[in-house]
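#onboarding

Welcome to the new folks! Below is a worked example of what a typical request in this channel looks like: someone posts a single protein sequence, and someone else replies with the predicted structure as tokens. Don't worry about understanding the tokens yet, we'll cover that in week two.

Example request:
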Amino acid sequence: MASQGCDVGACGEADWQPALELVLRDLPAAQRGPLIDSLAKLRGEPLGPFDALVAAKLRGRMMGAVWAQPQPGRTAAVWLPQLRPGAGSGAAEQLLAAAMRCVDARGVQLTQCLLEPADDAHTPMLCACGFNHLAELHYLAWQPQDQPVAANGATGVAFVPAGQVNRPALERLIAATYQDTLDCPELNGVRAMADVVSGYTLTGDHDPDLWFVIRRGSVDVGVVLLTEHLASKQAELLYMGLVPAARGDGIGRVAVRHAQRLTRERRAERLVLAVDTRNGPARAAYANAGFFPWATRVVYTRPRPT
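Example response:
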């Protein structure tokens, strides 16, 4: 495909480095190496590291590039097209469309793009390539030195290591916690639950000892899934969810305290998470637990066409 004389297509190995330098030019240089190194652990994903690295060339000179970076659980994240002067009108959209053909051909189930709240100039291009607005996310953090962690305060609630529950049962429990969720409900059913859970295991520096099933009495009613990011000395609350019958009883607050205690025990410098701005109850619970906002992003997603 061409844009005013540019040839647009997936990069060969000889073009990987210049294309990445262009598409990641706004990323601090110190972060680029760790980003590329992190791709090594994504074995078994349908999309290879640079299968969806696409460039536009004019008479052999690279004029633009875009990258759909593989992510865990049959997903990808788009680094928006970066252009050089003279790339021509329509080059950005053609680059993104070509990258989407690459992810579709490889069986990626969901592609996402994160934008700054005020960055709406890319919206028409994203929509033209099949993306839809999903949600606005608040990124929150809690620092162990900020305040002590309150005692459990809930009787009959236990946190059982998730390894004691077989994988199919864990997947069914997580699926049950998605029912009537206020956190990105549009994603329910887009991917198989096995892919969702696999994606959690490949995020950060996975430690199975940081995954727990919430048990009330003898009934499993939710999950708390954390991971560590050892290089940045952070813990992340990947997912905390309850089945509908267990909501509103204070168990969510207890689960957050459990995550905070684990963060302190691991000597992480902070605990981070993301929450849909539409999820008022969760936002209130996190605020009451001492979390503070540090970023906001608008999420656009593109399910694989059926």
